[in-house]
Amino acid sequence: MSRLYTRTGDEGTTGLFGGSRVSKADARLAAYGTLDELNSVLGVLRLHVSEPSGARERLPEVQQDLFVIGAVLATPTDQLPKLGAKMTRPTWEIAEMETDIDRLGALAPPMRHFVLPGGCPAAAYAHWARTLCRRAEREAVALSALDPLPSGVLTYLNRLSDWLFALARAENAVAQVPDAKWIPKG
Fold first, then answer.
1. Out of 37-41, 168-172, 181-185, which region has the weakest mean confidence (pLDDT)?
2. Per-chain mean pLDDT for the chain
3. What is the CA radius of gyration of the chain?
4. H or E segment at 158?
5. How confident is the model at residue 88 (pLDDT cuts 50, 70, 90)?
6. Total Cβ atoms within 10 A of residue 95
7. Quick check: is 184 in a domain?
8. What is the pTM of this model?
9. Does 7 map to a domain?
10. 1 lies in some domain
11. Contact 28, 73 (CB under 8 A)
12. Number of domains into which the chain is organized
């Protein structure tokens, strides 16, 4: 790519993988646009995570996986075979992610209340990333109602949001900052 601007989107449309053009308000763009937002916040989160959480090594892999999922979301179902084998699924297996969620959970004290987002900077960024991940999942679900997605995309996003929650709690525990508890008034 020799320049950053193409002028092809100036009228409110964009090209999908395979060549078709759609409105920038399309459900497909909402879904992969939120993944882009999530990936950006993960880049900031990487600057703040602690060594004990192990996330500094894992986050670049997650960012790579989100690019794969983004490519899938940017590709109409009939064009998916053109992506090739390397671009069809994330590399972090769900079972491995669940094992890491359990490991991170063991770093934090048992939950006895709902947790408010916040705490140390790494936890606050992890909570922000979690909420973006949940939005990306909702938008992917909406897209899948219009055009089926490959199996595993929704599961990955669902589990990633769980991992980000566990990471937020682990980061607070490592920093010795208690989670903010939600305690209803009244």
1. 181-185
2. 89
3. 18
4. helix 153-174
5. low
6. 9
7. no
8. 0.89
9. no
10. no
11. yes
12. 1
Helix (H, G, I), strand (E, B) or coil at 165: helix
Find the helix or strand (DSSP H, E) in which 123 lies. Answer: helix 121-146
* Of the candidate ranges 20-24, 58-62, 81-85, 98-102, the one whose mean pLDDT is the lowest: 20-24
Axis-axis angle for helices 121-146, 27-46 (nearest 10):
160
Strands 13-15 and 21-23, how do they pair? Answer: antiparallel
| Percent of the chain whose predicted confidence (pLDDT) is above 70 | 88
Residue 13: predicted pLDDT: 66
- Show the tokens assigned to 145: 């109602």
pLDDT category of residue 2 using cuts at 50, 70 and 90? confident
DSSP 29-83: HHHHHHHHHHHHHHHHHHTT--TTT-HHHHHHHHHHHHHHHHHHHTS-GGGGGGG
CATH code of the domain covering residue 136:
1.20.1200.10
User: Residue 1 pLDDT more than 60?
Assistant: no
Domain span at residue 101 reads: 22-178
| Residue showing tokens 């996003």 | 157
| Structural domain includes residue 104 | yes
* Short-list 65, 70, 60, 68, CA closest to 35: 70
Residues 125, 45: contact at Cβ < 8 Å? yes
pLDDT attached to residue 185: 86
Other Cβ atoms closer than 10 A to 27: 17
